[in-house]
Write a structure and sequence with these properties.
Structural class: alpha/beta
Strand order of the largest sheet: 22-23-1-24
CATH topology of the largest domain: UDP-n-acetylglucosamine1-carboxyvinyl-transferase, Chain
Shape: elongated
Radius of gyration: 21 Å
CATH class of the largest domain: Alpha Beta
CATH architecture of the largest domain: Alpha-beta prism
Strand content: 25-35%
Mean pLDDT: 96
Number of strands: 24
Low-confidence stretches: none
Bound molecules: ligand EPZ
Number of helices: 14
Helix content: 25-40%
CATH superfamily of the largest domain: Enolpyruvate transferase domain
Largest sheet: 4 strands, mixed
Length: 423
C-alpha cells in the first residue's frame, strides 16, 4: 500500500485546477442505464471510484470507452443483459447503490447488494427503499441483497416525502421516476449541486423534471430517454479541500474552475477565520498572509449548510487556529476518525458524541498517521502541510478514491509532498 510523505514547507503559491465532481459523476454514470442510446460524460475525474462504477456498469453489459486520459467516458447501454449488482463490487463503494433506481426503471427488476457498513457509519438504505416503493416497487431483503420488482406494467408516478434529505435516495428516486408512468413528486429532496447536475443531464436525455435544487422536485414520466453528452460539474469538495491548503500553510492559491455558489456556507465560514476569498475570472483566489487563523464553530448540515465532506479538512485547520472551537457532525454518526490521527500530530481535540472540541495550537508536529476514510485521509495531508517535520500518511488508497493527482496538484503550489510506493 502506498503512503504519502508530507514535509511542512511554508507558504504556498500558484494555481490548482479543480476536477469534475466524483459525487456528480457517480450518479451521472448510472443514468446511462436509462437509455438505449449512448451517453458521453466529459470533464470526468480520474479516480478509482469512477473505475469501480465503470466495472459495475460493464457487469450489466454496458459498453464503456474511457477516452482522453480518462476525461471522457463514452457509455452505451443498448445491450444490457444483467441487473444484479454483486456484493464484491458494492462493498467497495456505497455509491453502487445508485444503480437500483435506473435498473428498476429499465428492466422492471434489480438485485443490488446492501453496501454493508463503512468507516463513517452504518449508512442503511431504508430511505432509498421507501422512496422507490412510492413508485410501486416491491423491495425485499434476501441474503444481503435487495430484490426489487416493478409492477407488471412498470413503475407508476407517486408522491413521497423523505424523512431526511438523503442525497442518494433523492438520486435513486429521480433516476426511477424519469420513466415511471405519470407524475412523481419528491418532498424534502436533497438540494446538493450534484442533484442539479444530474437533472441537467437527465433533461438533455429528454426527462421532464422541475424544481431541482429546491426541496420539492416534480417529474413527469416519459416513455423513453435518448442519448446525450454532458460535462461533469466541478468538484466542490475537492475545491473546498484545496481552499484549506493556503489557509493552513499560508500563502495564496488560485483554484481554477471554483465558484463561491458551489460551497454554500463553507466560504462564509472560512472567511470568518480571517482567510481571504475572492472570485476571479478563472476561479477562486484564497489567501492567508496573517499566520494563524481564528477558531470558528462549525455544524455540518445538508446543502446549503456546511458540507459534512469538508468537516475533517476544517478540523485540520482548526487544530492550528487561535482559540477553541466546536465542530458538530450532524450527518454521519462516526465521522471523527481523523481526530486520533491529528492528536498524534500534537492536536488538542476532545470528542464527545457528535461534537469535537478543538483547542488550536501554534504548530503541529509531523508523525506517521493512518488514513481511515477518504476525507479523513486528506485532512491528514493538510495538517502535514503546516506541521514541523515529516508526516507519513499510510493507506492512501482511500485518497485515490476522491483526489486525482493530489501530489502533483500540491507540488505545483510549492508543497513538499511525495508518494512512497508501497509493497
Ligand atoms: C452522499 O452519500 C455522498 N456520496 C457522500 O460523500 C456525502 O457525505 C453524503 O451524500 C452527504 O452529503 C456520494 O454522493 C457518492 P446520504 P449518501 O444518503 O447519498 C443516512 C464522500 O466523501 N441514511 O445523504 O450515502 C446515512 O446513514 C462521500 O465523497 C439513512 O439513514 O448520503 C447518513 O447518516 C462520503 N438511510 C445520512 O443519511 C438511507 O437510506 C446522509 O446520507 C440513506 C442514508
Amino acid at each position: 500500500m502506498d503512503s504519502i510523505l508530507v514535509r511542512g514547507n511554508g507558504a504556498l503559491s500558484g494555481q490548482i485546477p479543480i476536477a469534475g465532481a466524483k459525487n456528480a459523476c457517480l450518479t451521472l454514470m448510472p443514468a446511462t442505464l436509462l437509455s438505449e442510446e449512448p451517453v458521453t460524460l466529459t470533464n470526468a475525474p480520474r479516480l478509482s471510484d469512477i473505475s469501480t462504477m465503470r466495472q459495475l456498469l460493464q457487469s450489466f453489459g454496458a459498453e464503456i470507452s474511457v477516452l482522453n486520459k480518462g476525461l471522457v467516458i463514452a457509455m452505451s447501454s443498448h445491450g444490457l443483459d444483467n441487473w444484479r449488482a454483486d456484493y464484491d463490487i458494492v462493498r467497495k463503494m456505497r455509491a453502487s447503490n445508485l444503480v437500483l433506481g435506473p435498473l428498476l426503471a429499465r428492466f422492471g427488476q434489480a438485485i443490488v447488494s446492501l453496501p454493508g457498513g463503512c468507516a463513517i457509519g452504518a449508512r442503511p438504505m431504508d430511505l432509498h427503499i421507501t422512496a422507490l416503493e412510492a413508485l410501486g416497487a416491491e423491495i425485499e431483503l434476501k441474503e444481503g441483497y435487495l430484490h426489487a420488482k416493478a409492477p407488471l406494467n412498470g413503475l407508476k408516478g407517486g408522491t413521497h416525502r423523505l424523512r431526511f434529505a438523503s442525497v442518494g435516495a433523492t438520486e435513486n428516486f429521480l433516476l426511477a421516476a424519469c420513466l415511471a408512468k405519470g407524475t412523481s413528486v419528491l418532498e424534502n429532496a436533497a438540494r446538493e449541486p450534484e442533484i442539479v447536475d444530474l437533472v441537467s443531464c437527465l433533461r438533455k436525455m429528454g426527462a421532464q423534471i422541475e424544481g431541482e435544487g429546491s426541496s420539492r422536485i416534480v417529474i413527469e414520466g416519459v416513455d423513453r430517454l435518448h442519448g446525450a453528452t454532458h460535462s461533469v460539474l466541478v468538484d466542490r469538495i475537492e475545491l473546498g479541500t484545496y481552499m484549506l491548503a493556503p489557509a493552513i500553510a499560508g500563502g495564496e492559491v488560485e483554484l481554477l474552475g471554483g465558484r463561491m455558489s458551489l460551497l454554500g456556507s463553507f466560504c462564509e465560514k472560512l472567511a470568518k477565520t480571517g482567510v481571504e476569498i475572492n472570485e476571479t475570472e478563472a476561479g477562486l483566489r484564497v489567501s492567508n498572509t496573517k499566520g494563524r487563523v481564528k477558531a470558528v464553530d462549525v455544524k455540518t448540515e445538508v446543502f446549503p449548510g456546511f458540507p459534512t465532506d469538508l468537516q475533517a479538512q476544517m478540523m485540520a485547520l482548526m487544530c492550528t487556529a487561535e482559540g477553541v472551537c466546536h465542530l458538530e457532525e450532524t450527518i454521519f454518526e462516526n465521522r471523527f476518525m481523523h481526530a486520533p490521527e491529528l492528536i498524534r500530530m500534537g492536536a488538542s481535540i476532545d470528542v464527545k458524541g457528535g461534537t469535537a472540541t478543538v483547542t488550536g495550537k501554534p504548530q503541529l508536529k509531523g508523525a506517521p498517521v493512518m488514513a481511515t476514510d477518504l476525507r479523513a485521509s486528506v485532512s491528514l495531508v493538510l495538517a502535514g502541510l503546516a506541521a514541523q517535520g515529516e508526516t507519513v500518511v499510510s493507506r492512501v488508497y482511500h485518497l485515490d478514491r476522491g483526489y486525482e493527482f493530489i501530489e502533483e496538484k500540491l507540488k505545483a503550489v510549492g508543497a513538499d509532498v511525495e508518494r512512497i510506493k508501497g509493497s
